[in-house]
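Notes from hallway chat w/ T.B., transcribed later so I don't forget. T.B. wanted the structure written out for a chain they're using in a teaching module, and asked if we could keep both sequence and structure tokens in one place. Agreed to drop them here.
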Amino acid sequence: MEVPGDRFYTKTHEWVKISENRAIVGITSYAIEQLGDITFLEVKPKGTSIKKGEVIGVVESSKTTEKIYAPVSGEIVEVNRDCGVVEEGSSEVPIGLEKIVEDPYEGGWIVVLEVEGDLSSELKDLMSPEDYLKYLKEGH
């Protein structure tokens, strides 16, 4: 199970990588494995402000539909259209969703948030890579 050491993780299997005041957000390889073939991924539009823990989007697969939650508070400033991520209300056809499956931690990111508020308090209840691996081993 791949769990890069340069980011934080949530109990709902999102990851976040911080670069200055920006948060790159994606879903973990564990989540992707559980989902199966991803058929659709939709997020709130650019410019939307999201609070930590709020739904940022949904991912549909051959098995289920799951919500994607914001690991930190912020404004959506980028949406990864190269990976087939579409904005809510868009008529775009998702092309490239396989990139999320093939490379979930680099090219397969979903959105970038401009972090709002104190970064250290935003990150305090997220898991380190070690804690996330332990969480997975406990059967979550």
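Follow-up for T.B.: The beta strands are 8-9, 14-19, 22-27, 38-43, 49-50, 55-61, 65-69, 74-79, 86-87, 111-115. Might be a good example for the class.
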